[in-house]
Design brief:
By secondary structure, the protein is an alpha/beta fold. Helix content is 54%, strand content 13%.
């Protein structure tokens, strides 16, 4: 009897001890990971496209504080200068590097070879390439001209591909590098009235998925982050075209997939996820709510059901007009 009591007391004392030790181990593991992330970009040459956008700005601030040698790119030279000045004013110059600025417009594909030269001339190499630029368009397919289609494809597909191909030889020769594509969830599923935009996002997703396997042997990582929407007011420098004749879709099932403001992530959250991805080198990250994730699986495993739901949403929108 006495022995069983002692055993019971031992078990009662042992369980909390095990819980405390386990919690301590996880806490230390988290601290170590945070410390490693702080050094992820230290002394690394990091290029950020569309640096003056909400996400680009957050990434620039986070990576600059982390000791990265930044190359800030964008269409507006004035906005790039303003961002560089902001970074300089908010940091210790003895611990950070002054960013380099390169004017970049993905819609002007003829200028991209010169841009590649300017990028490589900044530091002689490139460690991290972050694609953040995007042009959005929302309209029925038959109302969009081929000129708009080509412009969206140039900005969202041909531009990033051209820049990636331009810097790849340098990465391959150094046998190191990390390419990170910030892509839309519509690179994995489609929503009506976004035909051209979704096509461009599918195309760029496929390109970098294929590229990942090709460059792995050279020590180059390729990661994609697919998100629903960045919940900030659209920046004046972002390339965004939006036209819609279907404003009443908010009450349909379809609207749950396209109602971006309620299902998005903040620019700061995205920047933090980019830094974690550079540290973990994960191939693919999906930052989306449950409904969007479920839609991806439904598209893969129950395509007829998925298409029926989407079509029903469009019909309901038409009936409401």
């Amino acid at each position: 009897m006495e022995s069983s009591v002692k055993t019971g007391v031992t078990v009662v004392l042992l369980v909390p001890a095990v819980v405390l030790v386990t919690a301590g181990i996880f806490y230390l593991y988290g601290v170590i990971l945070r410390m490693l992330r702080k050094t992820t970009v230290r002394n690394k040459v990091v290029l950020i496209t569309d640096s003056a956008s909400a996400l680009g700005n957050e990434c620039a601030k986070l990576f600059h504080k982390g000791g990265a040698q930044l190359i800030l790119c964008g269409k507006s030279w004035e906005k790039l200068e303003d961002l560089a000045e902001q970074l300089a004013n908010e940091s210790d110059p003895t611990l950070t590097f002054p960013p380099k600025l390169v004017e970049l417009d993905f819609s002007d594909t003829e200028s991209l070879p010169d841009v590649v030269s300017d990028v490589l001339d900044c530091y002689g190499c490139l460690d991290v390439l972050i694609f953040n630029s995007s042009m959005k368009v929302k309209a029925p397919a038959h109302t969009l001209s081929l000129e708009i289609d080509r412009l969206v494809m140039d900005t969202n597909y041909f531009g990033p591909v051209t820049l990636a191909k331009g810097v790849l030889p340098s990465m391959i020769s150094r046998r190191s590098g990390h390419i990170l594509l910030v892509n839309s969830i519509q690179g994995k599923l489609t929503v009506p009235f976004r035909t051209t935009y979704a096509a461009s996002k599918h195309a760029v997703q496929a390109f970098f998925d294929c590229l990942r396997a090709e460059v792995q042997e050279y020590g180059i990582s390729v990661s994609t982050i697919s998100h629903t929407f960045i919940t900030t007011a659209p920046s004046s420098i972002q390339s965004t075209t939006s036209t819609s004749s279907n404003s009443n879709t908010s009450k349909s099932i379809l609207s749950d997939l396209s109602r971006q403001q309620h299902h998005g992530v903040s620019a700061a959250e995205m920047a933090g996820e980019l830094l974690r991805t550079l540290s973990s080198k994960n191939n693919e990250i999906i930052m989306a709510n449950f409904l969007s994730r479920a839609a991806i699986y439904a598209r893969s495993f129950c395509p007829n059901f998925f298409f029926s739901v989407i079509s029903a949403g469009v019909r309901n929108a038409g009936d409401m007009e």
